[in-house]
């Protein structure tokens, strides 16, 4: 099963709301990633988890809070977002971190912040 | 500095035409990996190919082929006899073993391919 799933597909939230994005993979991968993608731009790396530990935070504002409860799950908790945070949020996984590992992406969550 | 350039922002072809998507990269590493991903309108990035810096053999997979040339730092992607389902944004990406990217993907800006019936 080479699939990464993400829920929800779409999310609309106000600036005072708290919401969470969820990502799941059952490929036995030990590296998981969050990306943000604005329209007509490439994905931008936000966070990297390796063996359930946060290994990279690309200077992401604290209103985004990642969590990796176990090796299959990755969450992104959202709080007090701004309209400019509206984007497609992509989750990915790979066997390990490292340059030779191809990443497999989920379908993404389209987030709109009002 | 590491960089991936996809100079073609948008390409439009008619079905059954062949089309080549260009990718030029910059890196100081001697060991690196190059990738192509497809992103259809649904949003999911689909992995197409990985190539390491020591393997310059061209690869063919069905209607897809890739031409890797270290001498020109290029990793071009050709679709033969294009189909409407090939319409998508295609990203070329670089990952360095030892460079500043920590092994993470450095994406080009993408090329939007439209295949018209």
* Percentage of β-strand residues of chain B: over 45%
Number of helices of chain B: 0
The chain-level structural class of chain A is mainly beta
What is the overall number of helices of chain A?
A: 0
Q: Based on CA inertia axes, which overall geometry of chain B fits?
A: globular
Please state the average pLDDT score of chain B: 93
The gist of it:
The complex is a heterodimer of chains A (114) and B (117). By secondary structure, chain A is an all-beta fold. Helix content of chain A is 0%, strand content 56%.
Indicate the topology:
The complex is a heterodimer of chains A (114) and B (117).
Chain A: E1 4-7, E2 10-13, E3 18-25, E4 31-37, E5 44-50, E6 53-57, E7 64-70, E8 73-79, E9 87-94, E10 104-105, E11 109-113
Parallel strand pairs in A: 2-11
Antiparallel strand pairs in A: 1-3, 3-8, 4-5, 4-9, 5-6, 7-8, 9-10, 9-11
Chain B: E1 3-5, E2 10-14, E3 19-21, E4 24-26, E5 32-39, E6 46-52, E7 59-61, E8 64-69, E9 74-79, E10 88-96, E11 106-107, E12 111-116
Parallel strand pairs in B: 2-12
Antiparallel strand pairs in B: 1-4, 3-9, 5-6, 5-10, 7-8, 8-9, 10-11, 10-12
């Amino acid at each position: 099963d080479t699939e990464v799933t993400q829920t929800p597909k779409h999310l609309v939230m106000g600036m005072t709301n708290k919401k969470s994005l969820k990502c799941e993979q059952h490929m036995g991968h030990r590296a998981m990633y969050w990306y943000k993608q604005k329209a007509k731009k490439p994905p931008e790396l936000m966070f990297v988890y390796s063996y359930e530990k946060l290994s990279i935070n690309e200077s992401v504002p604290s209103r985004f809070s990642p969590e990796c409860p176990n090796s299959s799950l990755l969450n992104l908790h959202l709080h007090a977002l701004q309209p400019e945070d509206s984007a497609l949020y992509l989750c990915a996984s790979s066997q390990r971190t490292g340059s030779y590992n191809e990443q497999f992406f989920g379908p993404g969550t389209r987030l709109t912040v009002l | 500095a590491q960089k991936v350039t996809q100079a073609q922002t948008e390409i439009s072809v008619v079905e059954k035409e062949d089309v080549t998507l260009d990718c030029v990269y910059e890196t100081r590493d001697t060991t690196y990996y190059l990738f192509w991903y497809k992103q259809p309108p649904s949003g999911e990035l689909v992995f197409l190919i990985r190539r390491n810096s020591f393997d310059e053999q061209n690869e063919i997979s069905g209607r897809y082929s890739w031409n890797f040339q270290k001498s020109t730092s290029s990793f071009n992607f050709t679709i033969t006899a294009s189909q409407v389902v090939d319409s998508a944004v295609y990203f070329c990406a670089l990952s360095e073993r030892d460079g500043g990217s920590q092994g993470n993907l450095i994406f080009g800006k993408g090329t939007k391919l439209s295949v018209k019936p």
